[in-house]
Amino acid sequence: MIKTRFTELVGVEHPIVQGGMQWVGRAELVAAVANAGALGLITALTQPTPEDLTREIARCRDLTDKPFGVNLTILPAIKPPPYAEYRQAIIEAGIKIVETAGNKPQDHVTEFKKHGIKVIHKCTSVRHALSAERMGVDAISIDGFECAGHPGEDDTPGLILIPAAADKVKIPMIASGGFGDGRGLVAALALGAEGINMGTRFMCTRESPIHQLVKERIVANDERETELIFRTMRNTSRVAKNTISTKVVAMEKEGAKFEDVRELVAGARGKMVYATGDADEGIWSAGQVQGLIHDIPTCAELVSRIMRDAEAIIRSRFEGMLSGAQRQAAE
Question: Which terminus, N or C, of the chain has the lesser number of Cβ atoms within 10 Å?
Answer without folding.
Answer: C
